[in-house]
């Protein structure tokens, strides 16, 4: 805050006290001011209306205090989008130590900015709801932000400015983010792995399919718009039909995608196919695409791959040259490592690239490797070949080769048994086997191997080309809003079954969902979920959505500073200082003192407590949490004896769930101060009454209690009588 002249700390504190008392007294004596959403407008009006109580200079000082605070908050709000963009860019270089050191600190400052802006909005809502009765709203916020000579807003601004300058000096504010070549090296058609484990059947049948396509029967079927069907066994021996669908108006070239998560062996499969079928094609091209789908670059490289000479010129001349080279030739082209930008411009980039390839000879084919089912669906003319993890017996032989240098035997049976225990962690991933095999091969002591066995995969130090850094590429490629949503999943344990609507509500409550016109925000969040499913971050298993174990290890790695899962007593000391999202798994050894210690993590936003809090010993911990953890936006509790009056401290709270039957029979009157609350799920609790001011919960959209459900967004289309009955039910409570 700007003040005339330099003052000592004592003088500044005294001035701060006088200014605070002046503003407090001013607002306190105003009785006829109209309801006003903007706190600053209210404060300025209050000061101006009583200008006769002090000199012009004093009034100006007061007005300056208000204006500078308002300006600081507006500056934070305006700066946030640029800060999000910088975080996004920094994550692309988070494999570099200097960036990895700064990124958590910068993210923490951004979180703090979000929290203080969100707190201001709560005070604005207080004015909206209570009007004249909330005369102290501005002074409460003022005292919260400015404490003596310390100004929270200015402190956050300085941190953001300092850290953003440091990050931008590292070149993060310049070009479009791309995968670092050290993380994602260029591939070629020559296999690094001369032997493929566990893919013989798929490899043989794909090769047969490609070779047989040059026969007369295939050509005739092609000309009639019908396609050959071949059955290929996946690694789980389920039948997957590769079916060439008629799509000649798009492309005369058949496109077969190979899809799977990072490290499963897609490139190795494509390399072996390429080398074995190459003699059957007149022209062959291998392109390493990665995250830069530049049509001109790829066309140049395609020409160079065929001619061996570097090509130059405009796109038109390059495409004419490529068309002339492959026209009526039997072509095999491989596009390795295709990402979502292949579908940019609403698919026009992909069509532009394929345009010169339309008049190739019948039987020509394009192989595409990708991690994304969405990409595969966007480019395929044949049903996708999905690669899953290797089967246990084959995978064990491969893992032994990685650990001991031989798949046949090892000299240490004790180490071999530990290796067998580690195997399930790897989920059949060849790259995961190489990663752990390298770590284990470096140290042949049983103590070290047991430590690896007991550790989570994400806790182990890995090189840039190991499994989790490889999987992290999929995360980095997400839009920033999807990164935030998926990283939150690091607070859930492995094998957790996700429900789309439930997770969408959590994302909305956390503030991760960006409004889009008049579309209900819940629908936008649901679309986020579907987008992550299409990108293979969630997979459907037996009707439920789960995250692949290796992807779960990856999300815990990228969110290690923000998310934590408490499983055992000895893990309380491992919780990151500024953790934002925490889940507490049920454990009888988690006593009152341990649960109370969570209060020191005052920046916590999400608390998922799977422990019942009904026992008299641990029940009081809820009161301490509500008192000390004032930034919480989401609380999910298994059960509790009741909600304390201190729940009113949770100004940011948007989602509250008590998931099991509990002795809770009523809500405290202070509950009605939760102006941000959107979701209230206490359906298993026998609530006998609601506070009289329940209608002050102006943000409430969904309620489930006592078997009763009320979803505000769905009431617009429901029967009028039904809606009225639900309102009467709530009124009766």
From TrEMBL:
Keyword set, alphabetical order: ATP-binding, Leucine-rich repeat, Nucleotide-binding, Plant defense, Repeat
Coiled coil: none
Lineage: superkingdom: Eukaryota
Record bears the keyword Repeat: yes
Example of a GO MF term: ADP binding
Stored PANTHER family: DISEASE RESISTANCE PROTEIN RGA3, PLANT BROAD-SPECTRUM MILDEW RESISTANCE PROTEIN RPW8
Name of the molecule in the record: NB-ARC domain-containing protein
Provenance organism: Aegilops tauschii subsp. strangulata (Goatgrass)
